[in-house]
């Protein structure tokens, strides 16, 4: 494949370069005053890296996904397919070029600029999870926004990795925002008795007490079908939590499904949507929701963004066999 048919413009012509060979080129460069090639190879190792934001357009909306951080979790099994044989879970991982020893989870809040409002979906892990997570506020600034600009914060559900970034040191991070959360979700998590119960949900409910309850008079409590603004509509998607809400976005005929934690893993949740995920609070409902949302995205060819899909967390869904396949987005939104 040829990308550039123009002839070299330097004094060292293509023909000469081919005749000289590598040694000849080096001596030619030295005699011309350039540094020897070997000196160019030394640079410090900087470690793996990931972008911290990813912006694209959807009709008149501008959408940015942010990387709040990542977490490596050991043990793919039983996190996924706890009711299956471990060999079968490992087999799916291997077939998809994934290690069987564990998995990495991305955390990707989404900012939507409608042109009139700046709307943030979920707030990341917050200060207590730094340095690996809790990086949303910094990523926002890196992408050209300030927390003060955010008009509406929408919370898909009340798990700590979605509400942890609502405040820092007791002060709201988004001081000018109003909030939207699911009515069922709030009613489940907000009673003080749950935080004081000492049960398995108590520590999560305590975070709701410190991070959500103080904002209650600024929260609008949503049900299925309500609109955040024109073009952004709540979609009931319970199972992961009792009142989880996904959102359907549409601008100028372009659509996007923002599904929070309804579908978490790019392989297991797609290919084996009925397999158990230990993060779901109601397995039966979570599996039914997965099949419903994946089926809708596949049938209508709606692009999706998922909070825990590998960053930048945007792609498509294809129906495949008894399940589905995640197709990460490439340049579709730039065409
Ligand atoms: Zn989550």
Percent of residues in helices comes to 25-40%
Topology pattern, helix = H, strand = E: HEEEHHEEEHEHEEEHHHEEEEEHHEEE
Query: Are there runs of 5+ residues with pLDDT below 50, and where?
Result: 1-32
Principal-axes shape call: globular
Rg, Cα atoms, Å: 24 Å
Bin the strand percentage: 25-35%
Number of helices: 10
Tell me the number of strands: 18
Query: What is the terminal separation in angstroms?
Result: 23 Å
Distinct ligand kinds: zinc ion
* CATH level-4 homologous superfamily: Ribonuclease Z/Hydroxyacylglutathione hydrolase-like
Query: What's the CATH class label?
Result: Alpha Beta
Kindly report the average pLDDT value.
91
What features would you highlight for this structure?
335 residues, globular, 18 strands, Metallo-beta-lactamase, Chain A, alpha+beta, disordered N terminus
């Amino acid at each position: 494949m040829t990308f550039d048919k123009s002839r070299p413009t330097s004094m060292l012509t293509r023909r000469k370069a081919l005749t000289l060979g590598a040694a000849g080129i080096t001596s030619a460069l030295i005699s011309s005053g350039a540094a020897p090639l070997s000196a160019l190879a030394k640079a410090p190792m900087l470690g793996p890296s990931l972008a911290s934001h990813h912006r694209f357009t959807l009709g008149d909306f501008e959408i940015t996904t942010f990387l709040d951080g990542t977490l490596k979790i050991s043990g793919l099994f039983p996190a996924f397919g706890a009711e299956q044989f471990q060999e079968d879970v490992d087999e799916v991982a291997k077939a998809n070029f994934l290690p069987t020893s564990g998995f990495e989870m991305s955390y990707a809040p989404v900012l939507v600029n409608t042109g009139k409002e700046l709307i943030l979906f979920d707030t990341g892990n917050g200060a207590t999870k730094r340095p690996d997570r809790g990086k949303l506020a910094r990523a926002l600034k890196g992408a050209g926004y300030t927390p003060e600009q955010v008009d509406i914060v929408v919370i898909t559900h009340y798990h700590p990795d979605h509400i942890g970034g609502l405040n820092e040191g007791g002060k709201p991070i988004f001081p000018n925002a109003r909030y939207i959360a699911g009515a069922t979700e709030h009613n489940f998590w907000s009673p003080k008795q749950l935080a004081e119960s000492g049960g398995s949900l108590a520590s999560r409910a305590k975070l709701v007490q410190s991070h959500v309850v103080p904002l209650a008079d600024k929260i609008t409590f949503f049900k299925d079908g309500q609109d955040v603004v024109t073009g952004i509509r709540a979609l009931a998607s319970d199972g992961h939590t009792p009142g989880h809400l996904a959102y359907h976005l549409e601008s100028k005929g372009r659509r996007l499904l923002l599904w929070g934690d309804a579908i978490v893993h790019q392989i297991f949740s797609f290919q084996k949507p009925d397999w158990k995920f230990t993060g779901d609070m109601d397995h039966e409902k979570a599996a039914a929701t997965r099949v419903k949302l994946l089926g809708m995205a596949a049938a209508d060819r709606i692009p999706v963004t998922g909070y825990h899909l590998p960053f930048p967390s945007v792609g498509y869904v294809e129906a495949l066999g008894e399940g589905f396949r995640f197709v990460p987005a490439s340049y579709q939104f730039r065409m």
